[in-house]
Amino acid sequence: MKQLFVFIRKEFYHVFRDKRTLLIMFGLPIAQILLFGYAITSEVKNSHISISDNSRDANTEQLINKIKSSSYFIVDETSLSEQEIENTLKRGNVRCVLVFPPNFGNNLLHSGKAQIQIIADGSDPNTAKTLINYLTAIIADYQQEISPAAVLPYVIVPETRMLYNEEGNGSLNFIPGVMALILMIVCTALTAVAVVKEKELGTMEVLLVSPFKPIFVLISKAVPYLVLSLANFTLIVLLAVFVLNVEIKGSILLLFLVSTLFIITCLSFGLLISNVTSSQQTALLLSIMGMMIPTLIFTGFMFPIENMPWVFQVISNIVPSRWYFLIIKSVMLKGLGFAYIWKEVLVLIVMTLALLGVALKNFKIRLE
Amino acid sequence: MDAVSLKNIHKTYDKGNVIAVDDVSFDVKKGELFGLIGPDGAGKTSIFRILTTVLLADKGSASVAGFDVVKEYRAIRNRVGYMPGKFSLYQDLTIKENLEFFATVFDTSIEENYDLIKNIYDQISPFNDRRAGKLSGGMKQKLALCCALIHKPEVLLLDEPTTGVDAVSRKEFWDMLKDLKQQGITILVSTPYMDEANLCERIALIQNGKILSVETPENIVKAFPVTLYAAKSDNNYKLLTDFRNFDAVASAYASGEYMRIIVKDEHPDSITLLKDYAEKFGNRNVEIKIIAPTIEDNFIWLSQKEANH
Amino acid sequence: MEEKVIICNDLTKQFGDFYAVNKISFDVYKGEVFGFLGANGAGKTTAMRILCGLSYPTSGKASVAGFDVYKQQESIKKNIGYMSQKFSLYENLTVSENIEFFGGIYGVERSEISMRRTDLIERLGLEKEVNKMVGELPLGWKQKLAFSVAIFHQPRIVFLDEPTGGVDPVTRRQFWDMIYEAAAGGITVFVTTHYMDEAEYCNRISIMVDGRIEALDTPENLKKNYSASSMDEVFYQLARGAKRSDN
Questions:
Q1: pLDDT digit string (tens) for C173-193?
Q2: For A14, which residue in chain B has the nearest alpha carbon?
Q3: Chosen from A193, A203, A363 to mutate, greatest number of chain B CBs within 10 A
Q4: Which residue spans of chain B are classified as CATH 3.40.50.300?
Q5: How confident is the model at residue C71 (pLDDT cuts 50, 70, 90)?
Q6: Would the CB atoms of B49 and A3 count as touching at under 8 Å?
Q7: What whole-number distance in Å separates Cα of residue B65 and Cα of residue B157?
Q8: Band of pLDDT at residue A169, cut at 50, 70 and 90
Q9: Strand ranges across the sheet with A47-53
Q10: Can you list the domains of chain A with their CATH numbers?
Q11: The CATH number, out of the four listed (3.30.70, 3.30.465, 1.10.150, 2.40.420), of the domain defined by the range B229-292
């Protein structure tokens, strides 16, 4: 037991003395979270919008002035023709177009109800949503202003539409996605490299010749990365909660338990890679090809799986991070309990056992 | 009982296409300092790996410290100290950490066998807190030796410990090996450098996976079957080319300051004969003498004989 | 009397307050086999880099093949060849491709390359191996081929870094035959090594200790002056007192 302890301590020395690895391990999540986070949720100010005013009455003018005076919007054009709407959006000059139908003022004053259309560039769904929210708020505000008595209020019904990505998919998806990605990199790549490094140094040969049990070599390599990955995971959760104001709806304990399971999945894969490679470069390349790229493509956090050809959909089933991603989304964002995720958890467990089994079976007590 | 014993060991790689070890047999006696001498690719490392049980031979049997390398590999793993060829320690751990780590792995402590490593360790202990990556080649080598000795092995297996190390450190290293031998440890050491052969008690010359000879260095030199002449002149290259064209010369090759010459038929007046011939072709200041062959000369002789078979 | 192809005068390379090379002066003659020895960390590599036009000295003067090491590095590179034990040829290119590649980067004409290649292959007896990957050749052949490639563009000087370490004695002898042949043909051979048995083959030897040249003479004279029986002993006497070692 003392041997194992000393071995694990040695692994921690390696990790803490290698500034570059540390930087990758802890810098990467911070950078990714902040990058993704701020690109998505930062306040949208001074956004350029255009207006297609087909009514040109007192009401539309008042509303346009109100929008102009807010700090959120810069109105480029007020008399866009319907044909130009799409072109303007396509060119990316404006993020959003506001369309007043003909007789807007008339409808509003006489029937007490008028429609307004907001068309937003959905290719950046989060900005689009924010803009829509701001606009709706301004419109509601105006509604209040013109119907102070509130007996028979004038109602403006904003009809919003997002182009290019109608569901607005992608809002908070990135956090579970980043979690999967980072755990993958840290666990798989770094573990594989740590084992292969011993082969390159020639120390593996000495360890094999020693009475130290080979299986302990793997355990000692895995333990530090398990610990570090959990620390890493905590860091991501903290960043998400306190920096990005993401609310964790489900059980934190459950979140940690399933993440630990996923970490073990990745570690097993890392160990498996280290068994079949003998240079650090190959190990790194294999982890990237074998884990990171599938994670990026097949987990559904960058590209919706439902839109993929069926072959890819089938392939996505064998990517562990896809299941982890589903679990985290359910627990963290939707607040679902274990009853709703047990199937996914079972899939992960089976995958882990399979990977671990193959890794242990292939670990050689001799060189070949 | 022999400390190390190999009997008809064969090892091939790449599905039998590359023959690494070809029917190798030799024994190392208990307490002996035994050298395995041969160029890169001769099969030295494969032999070491078979003996340290990390590689399985295709055919043949071998034992270390009386234990079979296949069946009783666990027993061997406790009893040998091993320095692999490319062994380079943990660069990011200090001297002390490296040593403590290997001590623990072998289930012992630095203090337990301190006597054994004391002489070597004292030379590097002033730098205890320096990381191995920042040590000089000679110091790294001493540390590696300490690590291999930490569990007081019966047999020390050193695969090319002096490759890439400068002459001063090499000399110190061989002195350390002699000390260890005094303490009763059997040492099997490999090297591609023929000049290190004389520092061993017995040597095995190996090439292309085959053992050419197993003998004491003195006997190997004595066994050289012909007279070896050494020659030099103002222009050694011209002299060498001239001798190669001489009917009476069997072979002539460069070897440092003096070239080596072997004549076809031994003759009491060979020196005069060679000298006259050289001067006839305009070589000046020709000096020819009989010289004692070195291990390297023997190696060349033996490997050419092997090639002619 | 003889033409000098390398001239060094008080050549110095300083890194901060560390003198890697400390005022070394020596000349190397045309067609000479010059041994450049030193312990690890003595400054051999730094000095050789300057002479190969890869690094600027801090002070002092030096010229290689008549070109100044400060101003004419490009001309130096065209006139030297280089071979080390660690890197020499591309293992996954064929013999023929390696020759073409190295001939090409030194600007040898196409027609000239194919002519010299045929000649070289014939001399080395590699006719059957022309289209084999270099990685498949035995070490000794690789070594000989590497040397031939290093002098393929007929440089004035060829730098050899521990060229025969680990090679079997028979090949080593053949290798030195090639070196002597090249030297007899007027190519200056500059060998850096810390193996004394390689040193014995050189016409003259310099021994560097702690950034300085402590001895420079023929092997014979060195042994006489230090009353030593072998170069190993000479080296040991000189380098034992070294304060520096590699890091």
A1: 888 889 999 999 999 999 988
A2: B92
A3: A203
A4: 2-222
A5: very high
A6: no
A7: 12
A8: very low
A9: A73-77, A47-53, A96-100, A113-121, A155-163
A10: 2-39+172-362 (no CATH), 43-163 (3.40.1710.10)
A11: 3.30.70
